[in-house]
Amino acid sequence: MGKGGGCVPSKKKHPSSSSDAARLRGSTTVTAANNAPIVADEEIHETPAEAVNSINTQSVTATLKVFIVFYSMYGHVEKLAKRMKKGVDGVEGVEAVLYRVPETLPDDVLEQMKAPPKEAEVPVIKAAELAVADGVLFGFPTRYGCMAAQMKAFFDSTGQLWKEQALAGKPAGFFVSTGTQGGGQETTAWTAITQLAHHGMLFVPIGYTFGAGMFKMDSIRGGSPYGAGVYAGDGTREPTETELAFAEHQGMYMAGVIKRLSQA
Fold it and tell me: Which of 50, 157, 192, 250 shows its CA 20 to 30 Å from the CA of 28?
């Protein structure tokens, strides 16, 4: 506006938003927009915060989190969980976090059952923490073809998450431990699907993606199309390398699924 009240066109031309974004990225590409006069310092500071935040968001990719949540009385499920973490961590941009669910049995009972002490390095999870996971792998031993009471008690504590449907759309899978070959390698996972259904979670089975390892008949092997598994026997049998490799594959497979869903 001139002193006489008349409108005087400004000689300054503000760069287009695309030109400004390119300048902030350090682009050296010469375009017609780049030929605009250099703006003053005070005008640079007027760049909308939204534009800067948008650029920063594009340049920083957040790591996806897979929670491996398990209950293990004698350590068999925990061994699968740790090997599963290796599979998840092997996928770029995805990281696994180990958690155990709260114990419901008193110490004196666990001592009579000759259950070893829990490792302090694996924290006990609270139900509300599930909401920040990008996906979850639940592991538990069988009790008459269903999940152990400790894991069921944990699911029972997720009522607030269910009310808010905070877990809806999150991928989830299972891995199990049984005492015998007919002890529930499939049914223990199959009967647990109801927990996911009520939360609106997406069940991700392993299928036969483990390949040739799924068809080996030369040795006893836990696991099924529902997920990795181990035979514990009377508690003294250790997981075989095939069972551990199955668990590692499931971790890698789940991480890949979660990564693809995040990019959809």
Answer: 50
| CA 115-156-258 angle, 5° bins | 90
Nearest to 66, CA basis, from 5, 156, 130: 130
Say what angle helices 17-24 and 49-59 make with each other, to 10 degrees. Answer: 50
User: Do residues 101 and 154 make contact, with C-beta atoms less than 8 angstroms apart?
Assistant: yes
Q: How far apart are CA 250 and CA 256, in angstroms?
A: 10
Tell me what percent of the chain is helix, strand and coil, each rounded to the nearest 5: 40, 15, 45
Q: CA separation (Å) from 260 to 64, 149, 226?
A: 11, 33, 20
Residues 6+ apart with CB under 8 A from 224: 185, 186, 189, 206
Record the tokens describing residue 47, joined without a space.
């760049």
Strands 146-147 and 135-143, by their bridges, are antiparallel
Q: What is the pLDDT of residues 38-94, one digit of tens each?
A: 444 444 444 455 544 444 444 346 899 999 999 999 999 999 999 999 999 999 999
CA pair distance 253, 264, nearest whole angstrom: 17
Cβ neighbours of 23 (radius 10 Å): 16
Task: Give me 31's structure tokens.
Answer: 């375009």
For the chain, give the mean pLDDT.
Answer: 84
User: How many CA atoms, within 13 angstroms, populate the side-chain half-sphere of residue 137?
Assistant: 36
| Closest C-alpha among 62, 126, 70, 130 to residue 98 | 70
pTM for this entry: 0.77
**Residues in contact with 13: Cβ distance below 8 Å, sequence separation at least 6, in sequence order:** 36, 37
- Contact between 131 and 166 under an 8 Å Cβ cutoff? The reply is yes
